[in-house]
């Protein structure tokens, strides 16, 4: 089995001028992130604009990553409000040699906890890959406490949580109760906090272009150098502050474009960054990230 700890890039999706997936640029990014120390990839998540992609496009990005980095640990986000689509994607992930599947909780309709649990277990039982619960209450609107989460983690079908919340008490409770399960920190700007409460690694969008900083934070933390780790977290957070003001994914694509990639812009209804925002990125971010 491949290693599940460490830094996992939540990959962005590059679009060409015709709004089609740019496979060659995705390949280039995957290689770049591995060279920066990423352990693996979270493919087809929020950062990939999953809910703005067709089923075929979601399979296509899974294929590109599997073909480019068979040695990396690969987690496929297969979540969809359309459970039949989620099952199709889960089967595809298994066929393409992925190491795990993951899903955000079914959102929008305010499903009951029983309905949410039914969704996860049906998906997890439809394939032999382990399931990583994508806990992102701020966007999904589905909040779960430790008791609810335990119902998943007690099962062998569930490998852990992608934990995108700033309730670090709950993170600690989940990890302490289930030390054998993997917990990934989801908000990159709080990575060191997550590590200190028990996270095994992180899955993040900013790792697309600065995975190296987070590899370093983790190494310093593990060596007991908290001051050193905080310094790099602060450096990353100066950059993340700018991303959040512009719009995280729109800004991240522009960062990659300025670094020599051709990632295009996010799909509508997302807006393209303005000239002023591009200049801001050039001034406040580019000098502080490693050149490609
Ligand atoms: O996967 C990402 N979440 C989203 C985690 O994109 C919604 C994070 O990496 C954030 O983008 C990042 C900035 O808030 O921490």
Task: Quickly count the domains.
Answer: 1
Heteromolecules bound: 2-(acetylamino)-2-deoxy-D-mannose
Structural class: alpha/beta
Q: Write out the CATH superfamily name.
A: Aldolase class I
Please characterize this protein's 3D structure:
By secondary structure, the protein is an alpha/beta fold. It has a single domain, classed as TIM Barrel (Alpha-Beta Barrel). Helix content is 48%, strand content 13%. It contains 12 helices and 8 strands. The protein has an 8-stranded parallel β-barrel, surrounded by 6 helices. Strand 4, helix 4 and strand 5 (131-135) form a beta-alpha-beta unit. Helix 9 packs antiparallel against helix 10. The chain starts with 5 loop residues before the first strand and ends in an 8-residue tail after the last helix. The model has no long low-confidence stretch (mean pLDDT 97).
Which characteristics define this entry?
48% helix, binds 2-(acetylamino)-2-deoxy-D-mannose, 292 residues, TIM Barrel, eight-stranded parallel barrel, alpha/beta
In short:
This protein is α/β, with parallel strands linked by helices. It has one domain (2-228): Alpha-Beta Barrel (TIM Barrel).
């Amino acid at each position: 089995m491949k290693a599940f700890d460490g830094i996992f890039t939540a990959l962005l999706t590059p679009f060409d001028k015709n709004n089609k997936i740019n496979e060659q640029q995705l390949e280039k990014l995957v290689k770049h992130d591995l060279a920066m120390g990423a352990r693996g990839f979270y493919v087809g998540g929020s950062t990939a604009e999953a809910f703005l992609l067709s089923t075929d496009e979601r399979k296509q990005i899974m294929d590109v990553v599997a073909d480019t980095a068979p040695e990396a640990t690969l987690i496929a986000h297969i979540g969809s409000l359309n459970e039949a689509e989620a099952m199709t994607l889960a089967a595809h992930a298994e066929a393409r040699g992925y190491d795990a599947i993951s899903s955000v909780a079914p959102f929008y309709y305010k499903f009951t906890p029983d309905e949410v649990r039914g969704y996860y277990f049906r998906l997890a039982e439809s394939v032999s890959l382990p399931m990583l619960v994508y806990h992102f209450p701020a966007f999904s609107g589905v909040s779960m406490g430790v008791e609810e989460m335990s119902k998943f983690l007690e099962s062998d079908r569930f490998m852990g949580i992608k934990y995108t919340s700033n309730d670090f008490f709950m993170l600690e409770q989940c990890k302490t109760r289930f030390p054998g399960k993997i917990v990934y920190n989801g908000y990159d700007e709080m990575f060191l906090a997550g590590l200190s409460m028990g996270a095994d690694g992180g899955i993040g969008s900013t790792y697309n272009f600065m995975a190296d900083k987070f590899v370093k934070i983790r190494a310093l933390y593990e060596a007991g150098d908290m001051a050193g780790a905080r310094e790099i977290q602060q450096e990353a957070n100066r950059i993340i502050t700018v991303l959040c003001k512009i719009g995280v994914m729109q800004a991240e694509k522009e960062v990659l474009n300025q670094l020599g990639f051709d990632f295009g812009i996010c799909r509508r209804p997302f807006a393209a960054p303005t000239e002023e925002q591009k200049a801001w990125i050039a001034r406040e971010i580019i000098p502080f990230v490693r050149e490609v």
